[in-house]
Structures are given as structure tokens and as C-alpha cells.
């Protein structure tokens, strides 16, 4: 498990492209037959990916957690962006199709990831936050998620938002998680943009066609910075930063947050004329 330390707006304003990418972009999360974990010091969120092929992968217990097992003091959100698979939690198996979500509560000791087919493996995106109480392990398929239609063709941001883990959905201590799918012909996400000083956010861009890119914008509204992002790469967004982007094609992204609350609508809007 690698680490990313918290960076202030002042430090970010002086960074070049390489430094921005080293601190805020996770370039490779999905590695065949492996689990990749990145520990961030933004609300102590862990961002990860698991790609089992012909054998199960077991959620590890990195030494720097100083825990008896990974979820001793944590909770976990799992969202599958690949082929069909199964996640086994303390002996109970949950079937996850593409874009299905599983919440695993504090106290679960044995978590294993499997794929239905090694030729089309599951690709599990992982988000874990500290937890102070136990909530039941819960599966929610995309068909069961709460869809919200937003945006318009005229502003190139027509999109469907699917909510999984949030105040009115799967219960958690502080984790919030869902995904957004842009419609064909729409390219802008999270526009108009916002910040939310009370919690960090992580993005995973996926379903981006080969050769296409997303231009992700971060930074304070008055001091924005660009990052070019490829398919299945993740962005760490500090609480003080906007997080918006424009693609060369339509795409999808998973959003996940941890911090002071689980209210999806807790955000501080930034008008377009305030962006610099």
C-alpha cells in the first residue's frame, strides 16, 4: 500500500504538471491477479482496485494500518466496473455484475474477490474510510440504485447519476459512493462545479473509449489546474478543490466521499464567472 499526503492550496499553486500528477492522479489501480491500495491523508480514505482472474484475491491487512485485520476500524465500498464476479464476506457470497455495488461494514474479517470468468474478469474499485460503528454488509445493483437525471444537451452535460451509499441509501458511517454516466454527445461532468470543505472526494474515470481522454480541472476556483486523465485512472480531490472535467468523448465516473457527513447535496457551488 502506497501513501499520498495532504497538500494545501498554497503548495498546489506552485506545482508543475509532473508534481500535480504525482500528488493527485492515481495512474494504475487495476492490475491482473493483484490488489492495489493507496492510503490518502485526505480523511484517511483508501482508494484501491482488485482484479481476480482464475483464483480469489484476499483483502490484505497492510502493516501500516496497525490493525488485526483490514476492516477492524474501517468500512469498505466496492463497485464493479468489469465482468461478473463474486465477493465473499466472512463466508457469505455476493454476486456483483457490472456497475453493482457492495458495502462491507466494520468488523468483517475475511473479504475475498472472485471473477466469474478469467477471460472477462471483474474489476473492483475499492473505497475505504475509518468507521466508528458497524453497519450491515449490503448489496445494491445498478438497477436498484437511485437514478437522477441532470444536465441538458444544450450545455453538453446530460447525465444519469446513480446513488448507492448515502444518507437515504445503503447506510454507512461516513462513506458516500455512486457513479455518473454521461449521455452520448455530453462531455462535461460536475458542471457547474463546486467544492465541499467538509469532506474529500475521489473520482475514478471509466468507460472512456480507447484513445480518448478527460481533461480534469482541480484547484481553488480562483487558481485552477488541469490534469489529462486516461481510462480507469483515479483523481484525489482535496476538500478545498473543485473537481470537474471535460472529455473528448462521453464516459462514466465513480464518485466517493468521506468526511463530516453523508449528505449528497452538501456542496458549495461555484459560479462559472468565478472560475479562473
Characterization of this structure:
The chain has 276 residues and is mainly β. It has a single domain, classed as Jelly Rolls (Sandwich), CATH 2.60.120. Helices cover 5% and strands 44% of the residues. The longest helix has 8 residues. The protein is globular and about 55 Å long. It starts with a strand and ends in a 7-residue tail after the last strand.
Number of helices: 2
Mean pLDDT: 96
Any idea what the shape is?
A: globular
Give, in spatial order, the strands making up the sheet with the most strands.
1-3-4-11-6-9-12
- What do we call the CATH topology? Jelly Rolls
Output the CATH class name: Mainly Beta
CATH architecture: Sandwich
**In what range is the share of β-strand residues?**
35-45%
Helix content: under 10%
- Oligomer classification: single chain
Summarize the entry for a quick read.
The chain has two helices and 24 strands. The protein has 276 residues and is mainly beta.
Task: Based on the model shown, name its key terms.
Jelly Rolls; 2 helices; 24 strands; 7-stranded antiparallel sheet; 7-stranded mixed sheet; mainly beta; 276 residues
Amino acid at each position: 500500500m502506497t501513501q499520498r499526503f495532504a497538500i494545501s492550496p498554497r503548495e498546489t499553486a506552485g506545482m508543475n504538471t509532473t508534481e500535480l500528477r504525482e500528488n493527485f492522479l492515481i495512474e494504475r489501480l487495476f492490475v491482473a491477479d493483484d490488489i492495489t491500495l493507496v492510503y490518502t491523508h485526505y480523511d484517511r480514505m483508501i482508494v484501491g482496485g482488485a482484479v481476480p482472474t482464475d483464483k480469489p484475491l484476499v483483502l490484505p491487512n497492510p502493516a501500516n494500518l496497525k490493525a488485526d485485520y483490514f476492516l477492524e476500524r474501517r468500512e469498505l465500498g466496492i463497485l464493479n466496473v468489469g465482468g461478473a464476479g463474486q465477493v465473499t464476506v466472512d463466508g457469505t457470497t455476493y454476486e456483483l455484475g457490472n456497475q453493482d455495488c457492495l458495502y462491507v461494514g466494520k468488523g468483517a474479517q475475511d473479504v475475498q474477490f472472485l471473477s466469474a470468468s478469467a477471460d472477462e474478469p471483474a474489476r473492483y474499485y475499492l473505497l475505504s474510510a475509518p468507521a466508528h460503528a458497524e453497519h450491515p454488509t449490503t448489496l445494491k445493483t445498478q438497477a436498484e440504485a437511485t437514478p437522477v437525471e441532470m444536465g441538458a444537451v444544450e450545455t453538453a452535460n446530460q447525465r444519469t447519476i446513480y446513488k448507492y451509499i448515502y444518507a437515504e441509501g445503503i447506510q454507512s458511517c461516513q462513506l458516500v459512493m455512486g457513479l455518473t454516466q454521461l449521455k452520448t454527445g455530453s462531455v462535461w461532468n460536475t458542471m457547474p462545479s463546486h467544492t465541499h470543505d467538509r469532506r474529500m472526494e475521489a473520482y475514478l474515470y471509466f468507460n472512456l473509449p480507447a484513445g480518448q481522454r478527460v481533461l480534469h480541472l482541480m484547484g481553488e476556483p480562483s487558481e485552477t489546474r488541469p490534469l489529462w486523465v486516461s481510462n480507469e485512472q483515479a483523481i484525489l480531490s482535496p476538500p478545498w478543490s473543485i473537481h470537474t472535467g471535460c472529455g473528448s468523448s462521453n464516459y462514466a465516473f465513480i464518485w466517493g466521499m468521506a468526511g463530516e457527513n453523508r449528505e449528497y447535496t452538501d456542496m458549495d457551488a461555484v459560479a462559472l464567472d468565478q472560475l479562473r
